[in-house]
Amino acid sequence: MNIETIRYKYLRSVIAPMFRGMGLRASTAVAGRLARGLCQMDTPSRRRAEARLRSALTDAGADHDVDELLAAMYEHQARFWTEALFIPRRLRDDSWRRHVHVEGEAELQALARSKRGCVLATAYYGNIAAAACALGRIFRPVHVLVDWLAQPALASWQRSLYAQPQVRPVDVREAVRVLPPLLTGGGAVFMVCEHERQRARGIATRFLGRDLNCAPTLGRLSRWFDVPIGVVTCRRNPRLFSFDLALHEVVERGNDSTDDGKVVRQVMDALNDAVMRNPEQYLWSTPTRQDSDCDRTRVPHDATRPSTAAPAGV
């Protein structure tokens, strides 16, 4: 058993029950103090976050105190993990609307009632777990594309986080098999869409001060399965355990493969604008990926439409 596994077992078995016993308000306060202390340390994570944040602010022409934003980001991370402990208790069928305000609900309900499937695209922003639970209540269910992390203990924490009523986790390694029948059958897929390709040609996109080589996954899924893409975020409000789930834009599919890039850029531009309105709620310290989550396998270049079988890759 390595040190990371021991660390996460300790968090799950000791710290998590202690925080639940303390209650949301007290545990949020304690986690916030710990986060502020961590922010003061000169760690690789903090340096990465600062460099990325400065680049994004320069791109946006925004004038913010970077140190204040970084401190707020670390507190945001602490609140995310604290909130995760209380999601099963607070986001039930009979109580979730007290904690989540939905902007654009009529449009989301229209997507849910449609016989077409849909992809719901987001970024590492706000509280993704709360978004999944709320979207699950609207779409009944929503399927969340996740990449189970290497540490066994943390993967088990992820499963408990996402395995809420009306939320169905889908391992990214199973996406090629699961997504085609799901989308053609009118299902909804929720996914973080900012991952990059490193070893294959992608879609050149400017996002939060960085030049990304995005996978064409969003454009291909939309075109192959004739599904719209809803750009969504779940921003935290100042009030304790209160969120705004927002639908920012609905992007329709392109007509051919040359439109895949246009679809991807439109989605990423909408997310860029949403994040920069509250940059302290974005996870600037998240490492960039070596490969896109959806680039584990390759799609044949001559693939033009889905068959009854799963495509070779997404």
List the keywords.
alpha/beta; 48% helix; 9 strands; seven-stranded mixed β-sheet; two-stranded antiparallel sheet; 11 helices; 314 residues
Structure description:
The chain is an alpha/beta fold and 314 residues long. The chain has a domain at 94-281. It contains eleven helices and nine strands. The strands form two sheets. A seven-stranded mixed sheet has the order 1-9-8-2-5-3-4, with helices on both faces. The protein has a two-stranded antiparallel sheet with strand order 6-7. Strand 3 (142-146), helix 8 and strand 4 form a beta-alpha-beta unit. Helix 1 packs parallel to helix 8. The longest helix is centred in the N-terminal third of the chain and has 25 residues, at 66-90. The chain is globular. Residues 290-314 have low confidence and may be disordered.
Outline the secondary-structure elements:
Blueprint: H1 3-22, H2 24-39, H3 44-60, H4 66-90, H5 96-99, E1 100-103, H6 105-113, E2 118-122, H7 128-139, E3 142-146, H8 152-162, E4 167-171, H9 175-184, E5 188-192, E6 203-207, E7 210-214, H10 217-225, E8 229-236, E9 243-251, H11 260-277
Parallel strand pairs: 1-9, 2-5, 2-8, 3-4, 3-5
Antiparallel strand pairs: 6-7, 8-9
What can be said about this structure in brief?
This protein is an alpha/beta fold and 314 residues long. It has eleven helices and nine strands.
Mean pLDDT: 85
Strand content: 15-25%
Reading the helices and strands in chain order gives HHHHHEHEHEHEHEEEHEEH
How are the strands of the largest sheet arranged?
1-9-8-2-5-3-4
- Uncertain residue segments: 290-314
Structural class by SSE content: alpha/beta
Radius of gyration: 19 Å
* Overall form: globular
Cα end-to-end separation: 34 Å
Continuous helix count: 11
- Beta-strand segment tally: 9
Give helix % range. 40-55%
> Mind summarizing the main beta sheet?
7 strands, mixed
